[in-house]
């Protein structure tokens, strides 16, 4: 009874406090305008961003103690997550009920996506916190600046940039299920050269990917190794060269359709960036010419079969871009650019029998050239208005033009009003077009949405309360259509053959989403309290279909987060965090329900000195049994402890 009372109380706190506060650190402060963010493709004070945005600085990231980026992002408004098991398994993150592949992920200016994945999006399974200095979540359609995929929003990750002649950091922790994580980074500034390199190793015995209730018993482990580096060389007062790189390799054990199995998957990701930055016209025109490259390889194995290789895929992106920022005056600026992106993929699914030859790779490629521009005007102190346009020329689908507009007004009373409108365009992924389940007759997805919000600060920003209402409509949404045995549907065979297939992709869906995001934060003495509540109605509105009016799968309609911490004068910080997610459905027909759940975490941190801290946390302290994807397991009670250093 006491356990139930405490769980109920903490859930009430989550609703009552109803986005982690925008924590600030000195290197993120530009001037009186506040935090500078870069998810807008140009350094912009937070109070000049018209779209909804959450900023997590290094202090907030450290305080949360999360290992994976997905777990940290899940604490911010409007974000839901589903995962096919424990760490390292397929992880889908959705912003405001949009599809996972409709979110753009950016690391240090490089847009990440895997052309060989089902929707061409990014799998959050292997993205650890690593050397992240700041994470920004920009919600709503952002395709004007970020192009295809940015229908749900943008997750922008900025890694640490050196500020001193020599500096470093490290984090080491261990805990439940033989989990060990170790991270270290070193960097510095020497004359015209600044550099930083960091690496991380993570390993865990994990949990069964298939939940115990469905026969899962063995532990499915996961390992991840990654390294990231960056260097910038000043060529003079007005020019510099910027190089960045990131490499990650992961191995995760997975289960088969029937339950426990020795199957496993490998995932390798490489990201490269080279850029030239230069200014003209006395610094009023800032230019960037860059080349981005991403390479993702995925392999799956079933050791019990004669031919253990069961799946093989690779996706590559090459992206050339120019971006300019021109300050026409101290109140008017323009951001504009040109991009060319070339994507390739290949995949195959070999038979488990050695008597069957390896099939040829299914291959596909696409090219898209884009031109965009956005004008930002500050006609009055505190008032910022922007408008933008983008034209995409796709080699298969021709030209598409998108528009956006927005405004934000920060009043002297501490009230901030914001509103924005945006459009999105997403071409079918190469997998959806050319794989064994592909359909070359697919049309692009289109979306448009708007939002309006207000935030009020009290007592010199000690207390902030805000709320945002949003709507989004997506047409020609691409879904997977399963094929019954013996189906006479001509698309239920592999194109050009008589071979039956399990299903194919098609444009039949129309999706609509609307909702409210509310947040509050309070700082009083040593106390810090913050929380958020999201009401997201994401439905299938395909007229005349059996699923019309149904909830889109794996999207809770109600979600809430809350946290409270207290800093003692002698260096100890104690805190607790609560997450509550309402019910959802696992499938489009809404026949399979996923129950609501409440997770409670406890955290502690002790400052040994200005450079070193000890920390510990207990996650899911009540050992809640829940699912974010039907039949797949989730982490139970977990305890971790470690040490962190910054020098």
UniProtKB/TrEMBL annotation:
It is a multi-pass membrane protein. It comes from the Bacteria. A motif (TonB C-terminal box) lies at residues 630-647. It holds the Pfam family TonB_dep_Rec_b-barrel. This is TonB-denpendent receptor. Residues 1-23 form the signal peptide. Residues 226-621 form the TonB-dependent receptor-like beta-barrel domain. GO terms for biological process: cobalamin transport; monoatomic ion transport. It comes from Sphingobium lactosutens DS20. It is found in: Cell outer membrane.
């Amino acid at each position: 009874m006491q356990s139930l009372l405490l769980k109920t109380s903490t859930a009430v706190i989550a609703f009552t406090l109803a986005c982690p506060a925008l924590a600030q650190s000195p290197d993120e402060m530009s001037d009186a305008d506040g935090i500078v963010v870069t998810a807008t493709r140009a350094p912009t004070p937070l109070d000049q961003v018209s779209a909804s945005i959450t900023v997590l600085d290094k202090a907030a990231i450290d305080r949360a103690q999360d290992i994976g980026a997905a777990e940290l992002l899940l604490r911010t408004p409007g974000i839901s997550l589903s995962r096919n098991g424990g760490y390292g398994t397929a992880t889908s993150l959705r912003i405001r009920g949009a599809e996972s592949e409709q979110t753009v992920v950016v690391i240090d200016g490089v847009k990440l996506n895997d052309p060989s994945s089902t929707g061409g999006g990014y799998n959050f399974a292997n993205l650890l916190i690593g050397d992240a200095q700041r994470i920004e979540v920009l919600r709503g359609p952002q395709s004007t600046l970020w192009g295809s995929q940015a229908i749900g929003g943008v997750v922008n990750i900025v890694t640490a940039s050196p500020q001193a002649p020599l500096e470093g950091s490290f984090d080491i922790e261990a805990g439940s299920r033989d989990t060990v994580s170790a991270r270290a980074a070193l960097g510095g500034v020497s004359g015209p050269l600044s550099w930083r390199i960091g690496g991380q190793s993570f390993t865990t015995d994990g949990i069964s990917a298939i939940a115990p209730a469905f026969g899962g018993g063995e532990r499915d482990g996961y390992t991840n190794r990654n390294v990231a580096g960056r260097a910038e060389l000043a060529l003079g007062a007005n020019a510099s060269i910027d190089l960045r790189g990131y490499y990650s390799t992961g191995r995760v054990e997975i289960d088969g359709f029937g339950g426990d199995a020795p199957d496993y998957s490998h995932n390798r990701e490489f990201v490269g960036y080279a850029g030239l930055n230069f200014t003209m016209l006395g610094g009023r025109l800032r230019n960037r010419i860059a080349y981005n490259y991403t390479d993702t390889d995925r392999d799956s194995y079933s050791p019990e079969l004669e031919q253990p290789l069961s799946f093989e895929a690779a996706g590559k992106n090459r992206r050339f871009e120019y971006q300019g920022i021109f300050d026409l005056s101290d109140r008017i600026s323009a951001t504009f650019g040109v991009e060319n992106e070339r994507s390739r993929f290949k995949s195959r699914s070999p038979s488990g029998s050695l008597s069957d030859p390896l099939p040829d790779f299914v291959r596909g490629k696409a090219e898209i050239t884009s031109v965009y521009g956005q004008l930002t005007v500050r006609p009055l102190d505190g008032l910022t208005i922007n408008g933008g346009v983008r034209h995409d020329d796709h080699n298969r689908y021709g030209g598409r033009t998108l528009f956006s507009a927005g405004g934000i007004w920060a009043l002297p009373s501490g009230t901030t009003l914001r509103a924005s409108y945006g459009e999105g365009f997403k071409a079918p992924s190469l997998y959806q077009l050319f794989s064994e389940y592909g359909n070359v007759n697919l049309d692009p997805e289109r979306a448009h949405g708007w939002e309006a919000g207000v935030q009020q600060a009290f007592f010199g920003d000690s207390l902030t309360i805000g709320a945002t209402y949003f709507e989004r409509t997506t047409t020609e949404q691409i879904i997977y259509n399963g094929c019954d045995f013996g189906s006479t549907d001509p698309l239920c065979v592999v194109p050009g053959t008589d071979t039956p297939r399990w299903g194919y992709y098609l444009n039949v869906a129309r999706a609509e989403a609307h909702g409210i995001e509310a947040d509050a934060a309070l700082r009083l003495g040593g106390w810090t309290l913050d929380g958020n509540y999201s009401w997201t109605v994401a439905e299938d509105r395909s007229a005349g279909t059996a699923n019309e009016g149904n909830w889109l799968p794996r999207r809770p309609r109600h979600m809430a987060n809350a946290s409270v911490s207290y800093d003692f004068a002698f260096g100890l910080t104690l805190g607790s965090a609560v997450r509550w997610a309402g019910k959802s459905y696992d499938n489009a027909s809404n026949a399979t329900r996923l129950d609501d759940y409440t997770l409670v975490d406890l955290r502690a941190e002790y400052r040994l000195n200005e450079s070193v801290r000890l920390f510990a946390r207990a996650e899911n302290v009540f050992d809640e049994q829940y699912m974010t994807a039907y039949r797949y397991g989730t982490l139970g009670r977990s305890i971790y402890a470690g040490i962190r250093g910054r020098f």
